[in-house]
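Entry:
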Amino acid sequence: MMDWDNDRKAEVASRTGLPMPLCNIRIVDADGNFLPHDGVTRGELVARTPWTTTSYWDEPGMTEELWRDGWLHTKDVAVIDKDGYIRVVDRLKDVIKTGGEWVSSLDLENCTTQHEAVSEAAAVGIPDEKWGERPVIMATLKREYLGKITADDLKIFLKSFIEKGVIPKYGMPDRVELVDTIPKTSVGKYNKIEIRRILGAA
């Protein structure tokens, strides 16, 4: 890779990285089936190493869930490319499952905040009778753009990421809700339980 241009190098350098020696890392689907390391397919990151914890203290039920099928389940959603480089794309509890496909809430948030008018954005899955879940985004605008940018403007902006292949077509949010503030937890993370409650009732 040393002869690559800086953009290609940066794209690799920004990934989570390669497994260290004696780390066996794979990605699996919801049924525990191994998924291809093609740089595109997303699945839960599972691991086996000589030093990995074998159990939770006095919690046999949690231990059984942690070590399903003999692999430690990290609850991270990741992509692994053909060279073995890992890119973590979301937490399993935050990934949006629509029509049997996974959409990264982090990808939607990162793309939305690239708009010059957006201050913050949180993406969640809202229950949908047909698709299981559909993506919805809650966003705040910078003060100087209040009243000048609409939710439709942001949806048009997100279409450009679909055209680039950053967001899958089925990942286009059904709604973008502009709000004054986004609920956060006591440690400053997006409170996605509260966000789902608010958006689900919208």
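Residues 162 and 168 are 6 Å apart (CA to CA).
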